[in-house]
Specification:
- This protein has about 280 residues and is of the alpha+beta class.
- It folds into 2 domains: about 1-145, Double Stranded RNA Binding Domain, CATH 3.30.160; about 155-285, no CATH class.
- Helix content is about 35%, strand content about 30%.
- The protein contains 9 helices and 13 strands.
- The chain has helices at about 1-20, 45-55, 70, 120-130, 130-135, 145, 155-160, 170-190, 195-210, and strands spanning about 25-30, 60, 75-85, 90-100, 105, 110-115, 210-220, 225-230, 235-240, 245-250, 255-260, 265-270, 275-285.
- Helix 2 packs parallel to helix 4 and helix 8 crosses helix 9 (about 195-210).
- It is elongated, with a radius of gyration of 26 Å.
Length: about 280
């Protein structure tokens, strides 16, 4: 009797904490080709896993169809993988869930099948493994920061114009600074034209708005990009790769922007109350 009580207590604890862990994630990402296979959707494993997750109440997406909020914050999702433990006499699998840092968050029970035909065998084993999720009453519970309405900042045009276009518009605050800098330049330095004076003044104002830091940040590879940690170590930035070389979507505390390389220096560019801010970073890859 004592052993039975311990068994149910242990099962309850596993299900309770497993459920609490999974509730923090908005999406389940399923690869179209699992690591254990040589072909995409081999034996229709990806299709089945996605269907079963959706059927259990999870918002499930393929790894090449990520929504915008997940592209900006990869830690909203868990990535599913198929741990193939098959032997000569049986097909054996477990479903493993990893977070954005590659840390295993949850592993299901092992599903088994002795069917000789592979497609049917994997289907039976996967369905058995998914019984672990049927016991979890999943319901997405966003963290406090995620509940607040995020500030949406589009950097689409900024990425296209990096190092190729001058700044064409500035805030009213910077316009006043440019006017003051123009007067100062005209007093102390002869110039050829008024346009050249404004150009020099604008460069002076923009360069003064760049924040610099001497703190060394160490880049650690994670899935889809890097995380930048300080000497504590504490994660300060999360970088997601883009199609543009040396340009990353970045998140830092409550700020979203881009980290980019310009003239052998790294910068974090973001919007603060409608004004563009550049912060120089000391990154060691």
């Amino acid at each position: 009797m004592k052993n039975i009580i311990c068994f149910f207590a242990l099962s309850f604890a596993i299900n309770f904490f497993g459920n609490a862990q999974l509730n923090n994630y908005k999406y389940m990402v399923v690869p179209k080709q699992f690591d254990a296979f040589k072909e995409m959707n081999q034996y229709q494993t990806s299709t089945l896993v996605k269907y079963l997750f959706t059927n259990n109440g999870y918002t499930t997406i393929y790894d090449d169809q990520l929504p915008e909020d997940l592209l900006n914050n990869g830690c909203l999702a868990l990535k599913a993988n198929l741990d193939d433990r098959s032997s000569l006499f049986a097909t054996k699998v477990a479903i493993v869930l990893k977070d954005c840092n590659g840390v295993i968050v949850y592993t299901t029970q092992e599903g088994r099948s002795k069917i000789k035909e592979y497609k049917s065998a994997y289907a039976e084993a996967i369905r058995q493994a998914f019984k672990s999720f049927e016991l979890l009453n999943y319901q997405y519970e966003p963290k406090e920061k995620e509940i607040e309405k995020p500030i949406t900042v589009s950097f689409k045009n900024d990425v296209k114009s990096l190092n190729t276009e001058p700044i064409k518009s500035v805030s009213k605050t910077n316009q006043n600074k440019i006017a003051e800098a123009t007067k100062e330049i005209q007093k102390n330095k002869p110039v050829v034209s008024e346009e050249q004076v404004k150009e020099v003044a604008m460069e002076k104002v923009v360069s003064s708005s760049v924040n610099t830091t001497s703190e060394i940040l160490y880049a650690q590879p994670i899935e889809g990009g890097f995380q930048l940690v300080d000497s504590a170590p504490k994660i300060q930035y999360r970088l997601t790769e883009t199609s543009v070389e040396n340009v990353f979507l970045a998140s830092h505390e409550d700020k979203n922007g881009v980290v980019l390389k310009k003239k052998d220096k790294w910068f974090f560019e973001y919007s603060d109350n409608g004004e563009k801010v550049l912060k120089e970073l000391n990154i060691k890859f």
